Amino acid sequence: MDIIQNYNHEIGAHCESGTLKNLIKHEGVEVTEKMLFGIGSGIFFAYLPFVKTVSAFPVVALRQPICSIVKNVSKDCGISLFIKEFPTTQELLKKADSMIEAGKPVAVSVDLFYMDYLPKFMQVHAPAHFIALIGKDENSYAVSDPYGLQIAKLSRRNLELALKTNARLAPQNLLYFIEKIPEKINWKRAIVSGIRRTTNRMLMIPVVRNILPFLGIEGIKRFARSILSWPEKFKGFRLREGLLFLAVTFEEQGTGGGAFRLMYGAFLEEVAQMLNSSEFMDLSTEMIQNGKEWREASRLLVKVGKMLPVYDKEYPDWMESNGKILKENLEDLSRRYMERAECERKLMHSLQKAVSRI
Questions:
Q1: Beta-ladder partners of 153
Q2: CA distance 38 to 264
Q3: Phi and psi at residue 313, in whole multiples of 5°?
Q4: What is the pTM of this model?
Q5: Do residues 187 and 267 touch, judged by C-beta distance below 8 A?
Q6: Who's near 183: CB < 8 A, 6+ residues apart?
Q7: What angle do CA 238, 240, 242 make, to 5 degrees?
């Protein structure tokens, strides 16, 4: 199989920022994934009680909509992109084939389930996983996946199945590639823009907070308060699976751990080093500690989830014996997330002040 020359595959913490980094570095620009993640405003929070998961738990989102990191980096760094959701999978593949033949790697959004080169435990239905296509033959593609240690091979059939996910909130037949990149990127300007966007969206002005109280800091608070009602709303297996899935959402699924907060802290650390700023270094330390606290809360989610019975028929008797312990643990979780909200409120205000001095 022919692979695009001089393409350097590197693993990443998050599929979208990791794939974008590999494509940008292929264009000759040295940059870290954490820098792109921060400029792209990777962290966020949304508590969406009107959207349900399989277990009927409300959806919790830790970042902006899919492909927003790519679009934000493109805007702030002056990178020209071709990006399109194609009407059909075959049209996308035709475009991908032509670009690969021209020596241009392309990124696509796929369902992780069909990435059969990954370990079995990772092959779950997770739409909007980003990979780069960097080579092809008649029946397969060479894939650069940030979650894979090396370049992998994926059959054309599996790629076709993965591109059209039909999943709610996920793009269908999405492809992008870099058309043109500036000779010199103004990283300082991009950093300022990215941090301002992040803080504005997490804090929001009062009128927006009143209209959209499930987003940003207010969303974390609403999520924290809702925890206390879970034993009544979600019983037995649904409660168990909901708790465990939340932990996976916060710690796995490409977050880099700590609900993306650890990666954002690493971004602030790089900013501090670039600007020789003790102020940003202190904020980085605070954000990393915040991420560690998110991780501790996730451990408690797992602990509580594993306490619960697997079978619904066992739940009433279990609650009779363990209801008090469950209530205490959920109160602890609620308190922890309220503390995260207050911590991030202060952090975002401090970041707003710090970035105004750059």
A1: 142
A2: 6
A3: -65, -20
A4: 0.94
A5: no
A6: none
A7: 65
